[in-house]
Amino acid sequence: MNKETESAVATREPSTPTGKLEFSVLFATTEYGAHTARLAAECALAPHLPPDTGAADTARLLIAELTANAALHGRVRGRKARLGLTLDPTCLLVEVTDAGGDRLPTLPPDGDAGDSEHGRGLLLVEALADSWGWRPYHPGGKRVWAVLGIRAE
To answer: What is the pLDDT of residues 30-41, one digit of tens each?
Structure first.
């Protein structure tokens, strides 16, 4: 195991009778670390959100954007990021915590990233999530979260 793969150790609470799933994985704030976290999250969600549903597709996009943002904007040498998922029968909460508290999430001022290669991720999160936001996370980091309502398909 190398440093990046050993950091992608997941914890998962078994589903309760109410159908709640709690999942957490630490990942290196690199492109590969974010990719590994996304794959682990997809495996954890698969039994609960069948892969061919709109909710699963939207969940994958939200997870991809938030983990990519942590890898890009939350990198602090020697610190990892954490992806957390909480799924119940009505909603999925996606939380990504990183150490980059000096780089806070903001939408483009006019709500349009134009032709820029960057700046579209949070616009996508805002469009797909029922709600999203961020809060400071001690010491010196931030937690970005998004909620996706789960509707019967």
So the answer is: 999 999 999 999
Average model confidence (pLDDT) across the chain: 82
Token pair listed for 120 = 């579209």
- Report whether 86 contacts 143 (CB < 8 A): no
* Entry pTM: 0.81
SS3 letters for 103-148? Answer: CCCCCCCCCCCCCCCCCCHHHHHHHHCCEEEEEEECCCEEEEEEEE
* pLDDT, average across residues 103-117: 62
Question: What domains sit in the chain, N to C, each tagged with a CATH number?
Answer: 3-149 (3.30.565.10)
Tokens linked to 137 = 């996370």
| C-beta of residue 96 within 8 angstroms of C-beta of residue 70 | yes
Q: What 3-state DSSP class applies to 11?
A: strand
Say how far apart CA 132 and CA 128 lie, in whole Å.
Answer: 10
* C-alpha span between 130 and 128 (Å, rounded): 7
